[in-house]
Design goal:
The protein is α/β, with parallel strands linked by helices. The chain has twelve helices and 20 strands. Strand 9 (149-154), helix 7 (180-192) and strand 10 form a beta-alpha-beta unit. Strands 4, 13, 14, 15, 16, 17, 18, 19 and 20 form a nine-stranded mixed β-sheet that branches. The chain folds into two domains: 5-38 and 285-415, Beta Barrel (Lyase, Ornithine Decarboxylase, Chain A, domain 1), CATH 2.40.37; 101-279, TIM Barrel. The longest helix is centred in the middle third of the chain and has 20 residues, at 212-231. 30% of the residues lie in helices and 23% in strands. The structure holds ligand LLP. Ligand LLP binds at residues 63, 65-66, 84, 107, 167, 204, 207-208, 242-245, 278-282, 320, 324, 377-378.
Length: 423
Amino acid sequence: MSAPASSILNHVDGVLHMEDVPLPVIAEAVGTPAYIYSSAYIRTAIADIRSAFTGMPLTIQYAVKANSNLSILALCHAEGCSFDIVSGGELARLLAAGIPTDGVIFSGVGKSVEEIDFALKAEIACFNIESEPELERVAARAEVLNIRAPISIRVNPNVDAQTHPYISTGLKQNKFGVAPELALELYQRAHAHDWLDVAGIDCHIGSQIGNVEPLLESLSCLLELVDQLAAEGIALHHIDLGGGMGVTYQNETSLDMDAYGAGVRQILGARKLALMLEPGRSIVANAGVLLSRVEYLKPAAEAGAPSFAVIDAAMNDLIRPALYQAWHDVLPVNRHEAQSHVWNIVGPVCETGDFLAHERELALEPDSLVAIASAGAYGMVQASNYNARNRACEVLVDGGEFRVIRRRETMADQLRLEQELPG
Ligand code: LLP
């Protein structure tokens, strides 16, 4: 499932297609840069997770943060997912997509009073509590609003996810969750509280994890607590293992989902616990490309100097290379006769950090289209208006059809918040 998107991206007669749609047709229709996603990939990725956990009572809580486009949310809902949110904004997106909120779980270290009230009124399934004061705040708001709050404690198991430090979240030096000893105390307090319902336990140790071992180690850590709580008469309904399943961008091995499923089945044993996962990246990363056009070619002036292909997408569209030194494949859209050459693929933003890829051998000409691969997760959601650039549009492909699922931003959109001021 997490293989590069070769199954949905193919050259047919020298032209790159997503599913059955030639990418130049989309570029012609909507312009560039444009994010383009495959419905088929998303459906398959969801089905593959399910099949790895066959026979277990699994709910897939798609992590909205990975790609929060309303149509992507609707597609995940249609495929039976529920959702993991980390803000009131993400809850508002689910409501705007017409998705029921009773299966939603709410993670994140900084839930505001407004966000907690919003989620209580939306009757979400669970608050993943990340600190002692947050537990107090949720309890207090539940009492004020007269709505009971289902809670889970996010445990920080102090396990090294062996991933990029910015996206590692399960070590005790990270801001996330609480240590197991404190979790135990918080459960006792929550159990005795009139307005809190103890529902489950959760963790999320990081993102882009390639090995099952740290994930299974975290599960064992959580189960120790589950058993301890059971002995004290506090029964949990669910265990939520978070997201983090790694995918292939370059030549990393993606997380072995079947091994993960088998490991979880074995470690859970006979315990009667509903299971939740919060995958984001593994569902959408390789479903998407960022389609862009070459503006200028700047071949090296002297031997040994770099050559630059300046494209119309930039770090404001896809910040992952600049922020995490992330590697994204760059695929030629039209295979043509131009001589291939080693290019640094850069954008128009005025920073040396504005690059999409370094040293890629490609046959490019002015106006060539390129597809930056594996861009479906943490791409558009992290886009900004830096350099006053309008954010790209988004397109969803399904078989031989495609439709715009977010129109390209305009200057009027950007200016509205500063021009429409009172007085
Ligand atoms: N659950 C929680 C509580 C999370 O914080 C995250 C991601 C997920 C689930 C989903 O994890 P996934 O399955 O997507 O690995 N912007 C970074 C990734 C940040 C991930 C943050 N948390 C990137 O572009 O690599």
